[in-house]
Amino acid sequence: MAGLTPAAGAMRLFRWFIVRRIAHEPLRSGLTALGIALGVAVVVAIQLTNASSLAGFETALNTVSGRTSLEIVSAGPGVDELRLPALGWLRAYGEVSPVIEGDLVYRQAGRPPETLRLLGVDVLRDQPFRDYNLLEWGVAPKRDAARATSGTKPDLRTTEFLGLLLDPASAIVAARFAVPRGLGVGATLPVNVGDRTLQLTIRGLLKDEGPARVLDGRFVLMDIAAAQQALDRYGRVDRVEIRLAPGINIDTAETEIAGRLPPGLTVERPAQRGRQVERMLAAFHLNLTALSYIALLVGLFLVYNTVSVSVLSRRGEIGTLRGLGVTRGRVRTLFLAEAAALATIGSAAGLLIGRLLANATVALTSTTVSALYIATAAAPPALAWQHVVLAFATGVPLSLLAALVPALEASRVAPMAAMRGADQVEARARFPRHSLWTGAALLAAGGWLATLGPVDDLPLFGYASAIAIVFGASFLVPSILFAVAHTVEQPARRLLNVEDWLAVTNLAAAVPRLSISVAALAVSLSMMVAVSVMIGSFRETVIYWVGQTLQADLFVSPGARRGGGAEQTLSPDVVRTIAGSADVAAIDRFTSVEVPYGDTRVRVGGADFAVRLAHGTLLFKSPSDARDAMRRAIGEDAVVVSESFVIKQHIGVGEDVRLPTPDGPVPFRIAAVYYDYSSDRGVLVMDRSTFARHYGNRTVSGLSVYLRPGTDHDAARQRLLTEIGETHRVFINTNASLRTEVLRIFDSTFAITYALEIIAILVAILGISGTLLTLILERERDLTVLRLIGTDRKQIQRMVVGEAVLIGAISQAVGLGVGLLLSLVLIYVINVQSFGWTIQFHLPAGFLLQASILMVLATALAGLYPARRAQRLATYSAADEG
Amino acid sequence: MAPSPLLLIDNVHRTYTSGDTRVHAVAGVSLAIDAGDFVALVGPSGCGKSTLLHLCGAMDRPTSGTVRLESVLLSALGDDELTRVRRERVGFVFQFFNLLPTLTLLENVQLPLLLAGRRPAAAAPAARALLERVGLAARLRHYPQQLSGGELQRGAMARALVHGPALLVADEPTGNLDSENGRLVVELLRDLNRETGIAVLLATHAPEVAAAAHRVVRMRDGRVDAGSRSDAAL
Q: Which residues in chain B have Cβ-Cβ distances shorter than 8 Å to A498?
């Protein structure tokens, strides 16, 4: 390198020594980059997915809020319009405008139902808050032919805008929604609200700006009175928005307004709702994020393998370089640079794969998020610079960390020994005492951490416990490998074929080299086992719970429920029709509102306690005489609450819970706690009469119907549908079909979990293949000797595949053990602290057995390529080359 | 009619191609070795000794010419058949011993028998007996890393002989040993040759090793030196 600067020299060495090698072995380089890419992709995809579920809401919040500084809200059904005149003093602080929001469901043949966000505004007052830029508009000539007008100019005057919305069926929609669906100005937009179908007329198309960006353009603007009518919420608005006049301090204004508001009304900032929703989703997001990092962790083992292979297969070259004067530091840097190069390629690819994967993960999670939490956008957000940073900031440094051990090994290569190939003989492994103690200590720490409570309602110590168990088990892997190999070595010689016995002896010798790969596979398998046990237990618990609690014969819900959220209601005449049907013995009407509670939001429901006690049942957790307690709660300010509420709010039976009502906060005594797996959000149910007293006589959101004895469920369902007629759109599930539906939703909720796990396992299997390849390269000379003393190619192949099977079996066994431990942490710590659910432990033995067999087969397959390489490597010249 | 030689090499060529370069490692060698022979191949590095050993030991096939071991035409055999020949009829000793580090000495020596399908219970006594014969009775349970160079090479010889081969091929068997251990190994080779009647073909640089052979064959540039086939005085 005479004449070159050190940097140029290093660069040239990198090109000659690393770049050419990467290019020369495209398969190995490609697989490693793919491993990193998959790991990074999963992390990016989950970040995008989490962002998408929040982004849908936040965009809605921010764009709909517009320039709103403060808002006046009321707990429960919204602000009574009759109270608005008394709030005239608010105008002293700035512009004031009432708003109503709700969800409509649009159905078009061949497409899944789509939720549209309806915003009803007082057009005259709304202008300071939001900008509506129309792309195209038109007023129906039939209504006022003399003033019929249309056009495309965007700067419509307020009065003209008002003119567009005069008709109660008039709506303005986002062009981004309308155009792809072939809807234009003048077109009819059929939507469902509750069980009713409305025919709205499109009067204008909004540009993709401001509120029109809500939920990917699924936005409908109406006049406030028309919206109240459409949503069947006469006399109510959701909130009164305030845009503070210039010069007014928001903190001062908020304090002053809070002091003057009558009971039942509160002032808050729009962002507060966002924070509540964010908090509501925090545990769900944290769980997904934790899962996503497993794939990355496993991907890093691949980097370790690849750089190890690179170092091992080039010891001679390294020796030569060292002999020629290349320093240890430079050798180390060279191999780290190899990892960095592969990680850079992998991270870049991971970013793109992550974006594609996000489409799938959003699709997999949006059902859950929509069903359990909030309406959400169906597509992930675009990649932003922070995702690029995330991809490279996780992929590259972690890969360098993974490459550090083999790079250090490379730098320690002794020049002469390496050139002679004399340093490749691997010493027999010694019992790894240190790692045994470290592993035991970590496992003990994991056990202790599992006993600690949540931090800020998140199971951080639970995750720390899981991590300690995973790393503890990883440290135990060398001892386990050592023990297994040495225990079975002699029996294997007596009982197995010579090739299988050789596989065992190879394993015994390669414990240090194999430990990391076996640990990686065991870790990903243990997560699979843990998650399977958790989901299996959860599923069994839900099946039992459904069996106990779904006692009604039919369940009626509004047609817009699916996709429209729990706020959808049934029309009073539908309820009357069902209640009056000859088939029906009793109905239990359920009504609910969502109210803020602390820093989150809970659901408060009203149900017919008497009917529920007579016909149905809840699965009570406490007290022991819960049914009596529920009976005593009829008509009282008392609630029965879901288990997740008491766990998350650290409250119990007999204590008071203060709930916001339209008349101000009211204390309700907790009469009983029941198991509820339909939602991880707190649910508080009071008798219907109590509910009506505090939250008004709200329309019903669902009915449980008890039929007269001997009535055929399906026939009764058909008769009820006929009686209800075509004007109302309702879903009636029979008991059996609802049970099926519950499990369908359950399974779709956990589909993402399995998808992430499978990716982690695929990456781990790539890792096993890589490790075997490393071992084969290390043992080139031994393989040659075996060939020379009469081992044929098939025996070599069988030996390597046998080793792979052994590795797979040990990994699976360790994975099963650790997975069972982790499942206890998941079920009894993380799950309880995240979601507040009690899950009964259930071992899905059949599934685990199948998975174990599949796993061993998969590792056998992973051994085929190294086995082929082993056959090729065993050339006759290696043994006698000095 | 005289019995046919154990090993008969007739006008054998072995050419390696590497890119555009062709190397004639062995260029027209003919040689006959009888049962009980002890033949030393000598010559400078790169003269083709090792290549010739590989061809004789059923490790490789010639580019042209024929190699017959016990009248079997090795050059016509496929890989599996060559493997069987090596497993049953040939033993190998290398400069770097090449015992498998994951097995004990006893296991290393048993291995050829196990590969040939013998049961461990039957293989162990044969291996033990040979190890006793080469003076390693006290080292049966030791791993290769725990043995000296001389012990390793004696162990390697036991492994090469345990399955009762007809031909022992040794490539620089003393090349990695001090003179005392080298001497012991050569004596052992000569004794075993005499006791068992096994034919020995060894390649060496060392004149004192070559001196132990019945016959010395000199090689240069892939050919046998004219007039080099001398019977060594015993």
A: 111, 114-115
